Amino acid sequence: MVTQLNTPKIILDTDPGGDDLFAFLWLQSLVKQGLAELVAVTTTDGNVSAQKTFSNASQILGLGGFHHIEVGRGVARREDAAENAAHIHGSDGMGKLSTTLTSATHAYETARYSDQIIIDKLNAAPGEITVVAIGPLTNLAAAEVKSPGILKKAREIVLMAGAFHCSGNVTPHAEFNVWFNPQAAETVFNSRDDIVVLPLDVTTQLIFTREMAQAVSQVNPESEIAKFLVSLCEFMVGTALGYRETGGINGFFVHDAATLGYLFYPETLMLRRVRVRIETKGEWTCGQTLIDSRPAPKTGANAWVALQVDQTRFFTSFVEDLKYFIRQ
Ligand code: BDR
Ligand code: CA
């Protein structure tokens, strides 16, 4: 592996989470290929509790041989915060497969908090680190509140968040990562004017199928990563079908992987310059994300939002990169 100059340095903020884990495996492959550097993983309360997302991140890093990467523990959220998504991702957040993997090697009790890691890493390398956030935005907002202006020190902030011209997935109007902590999302969108957003509009076009899992696994069926990937896919397909997410297609949405599609295969996406607003109070619409599509002049854009994706090209690259990882 040759590390290239200008290799993107990445902090992954995540709440694993089945689709988080698929994104995580893809990122580990990109790191192994010398295409990315993983600076830290900051976990957050979301799909399952902060303690579980932390140990899931540790286990998946261990699976890929990345034990040395620091893992942050999630900042506490509000007492009245929303319910998690264990019904989709399994009670452990990884399709009930956590007991099949080597135990977590990072210690939750002594780990640094995620917001502090974000602050320290961005201060140490201003303008160099890309923050990829694929869970609720609690940690990023906490970092911004503690150290105002810190998120501007990121090279780029790339989010899986929101739903613009489509239904929400947790309420009729809201997407899970925003709905879980809308105030945090608002803080992040107010922090700079070039947030990159991969919303449900594109991620619900990204259905990872059993056939794709088999194609990846065939490269080295006996590898632990291949076995885990196939089993996790099987679990996620089961819940996706149960909740009628994919219109009967035998697959599941790899929402969070869209962020890596944007960073490493940008030809697969079309983005629009917009002002994103977050509904933080609505009785029926809390967590909704809005953009103005009226044919009138607009000012105050704060984001680039992906609204179209080329699924064929996206999955060609995703699957090939996973094969690379499994071959190792
Ligand atoms: C997002 O919600 C979570 O359940 C997924 O991991 C993804 O980050 C999709 O709305
Ligand atoms: Ca997630």
Short structural summary:
The chain is an alpha/beta fold and 328 residues long. Helix content is 37%, strand content 16%.
Strand order of the largest sheet: 3-2-1-4-5-6-12-9
Present as ligands are: beta-D-ribofuranose, calcium ion
| Element-level helix/strand string | EHEHEHHEHEHHEHEHHEHEEEEH
CATH superfamily: Ribonucleoside hydrolase-like
Number of domains: 1
Return Rg in Å.
18 Å
What's the N-to-C terminus distance?
11 Å
Count of extended strands: 12
- Summed over residues and divided by their number, the pLDDT gives a mean of 95
Low-pLDDT residue spans? none
Topology:
Elements: E1 9-14, H1 18-32, E2 37-43, H2 50-64, E3 71-72, H3 86-89, H4 114-124, E4 129-133, H5 138-146, E5 156-160, H6 176-180, H7 182-189, E6 195-198, H8 200-203, E7 207-209, H9 210-217, H10 224-242, E8 251-253, H11 258-264, E9 269-274, E10 277-278, E11 289-290, E12 303-309, H12 311-327
Parallel strand pairs: 1-2, 1-4, 2-3, 4-5, 5-6, 6-12
Antiparallel strand pairs: 7-8, 9-12, 10-11
The chain binds beta-D-ribofuranose and calcium ion.
Calcium ion (CA) binds at residues 15, 17, 20, 47, 134-135, 256.
Word description of this protein:
This protein is of the alpha/beta class. Helix content is 37%, strand content 16%. The protein contains 12 helices and 12 strands. β4, α5 and β5 form a beta-alpha-beta unit. The longest helix has 19 residues, at 224-242. It is globular and about 55 Å long. It binds beta-D-ribofuranose (BDR) and calcium ion (CA). Calcium ion is lined by residues 15, 17, 20, 47, 134-135, 256. The site of calcium ion has 7 residues, from loops.
